[in-house]
Design brief:
single chain; alpha/beta; Aminopeptidase; 2 domains; 6-stranded mixed beta sheet; binds zinc ion
């Protein structure tokens, strides 16, 4: 019996070495294939957005609720919640974050511009332009009379915003799994009147029951923020 047990142990060890040799080698190979310079960069610079100034513009607010969907919440509320999730992620990565509004009050509310949408938009772009921001990201929810339409789209106006729009769109789709409606040139006031690379993200359709329900939930807003964050990090890492 003792001899049999020893033979069994020996066979077990041989099998172990065979498989560790078989599978261990390619793993080591893969590890060694990682360029040393990039491995060093990602571990040393724990703050991929260090020194960047980022303006987040949660669309609408105050007397302007934005689109009011089939769900429980307004566009203004949804995008403000996403912005509040996004802000600490960007700050953790080293960025200075400026929000064009922090509450459900639009920037120009209470001034002579009150209730004038253009005045609110001018206040948003002037906040961005005065801040010396590297990028401007405006967050919105979409609307269509055809309630079956759903998905995510990102807009730029000047060509300097294309790469940022593409990065955010790609990362956001990957994170929230929404339908990819693409990156487009859009003649939006906040894009036209900002001097830095600027993007307007339409996260989803508040006119679509399923997306309106998702956008009303904190976990989905948080996933949205993660997607936008990843897109911003990608953008600066490839610049
Ligand atoms: Zn909007």
């Amino acid at each position: 019996m003792k001899l049999q047990a020893n033979i069994f142990t020996t066979i077990l060890m041989l099998v172990f070495f065979f498989f560790s040799g078989l599978f261990g080698q390619p793993h080591n190979q893969e590890y060694l294939d990682i360029p040393i310079s990039s491995a060093r960069t990602s571990s040393e610079s724990g703050q991929p957005l260090a020194g960047k100034i980022i303006v987040i513009d949660p669309g609408h607010g105050g007397s302007d609720p934005g689109t009011v969907g089939v769900g429980r919440t307004t566009e203004a509320d949804n995008v403000l919640a996403i912005a509040w999730d996004l802000k600490p992620m960007l700050e953790e990565a080293g960025a200075t974050v400026i929000m064009t509004r922090q509450t459900n009050v639009s920037p120009a509310e209470g001034t002579t511009y009150q209730r004038q949408i253009n005045g609110q938009l001018a206040a948003r772009t002037s906040i961005a332009n005065r801040s010396g921001a590297d990028i401007f990201v405006s967050i919105h929810n979409d609307w269509n009379d055809n309630r079956s339409i759903s998905g995510t789209s990102s807009y730029y106006f000047s060509s300097q915003g294309i790469a940022l729009a593409e990065s955010i769109q790609r990362a956001l789709i990957k994170q929230i799994g929404s339908k990819d409606l693409g990156v487009h040139r859009g003649n939006f006031y906040v894009l036209r009147n900002t001097t830095m690379p600027s993007v307007l993200v339409e996260v989803g359709f508040i006119s679509n029951k399923r997306e309106a329900d998702l956008l009303a939930q904190s976990w989905y807003r948080s996933e949205t923020a993660k997607g936008i964050y990843a897109g911003i990090v990608d953008y600066f890492s490839t610049k």
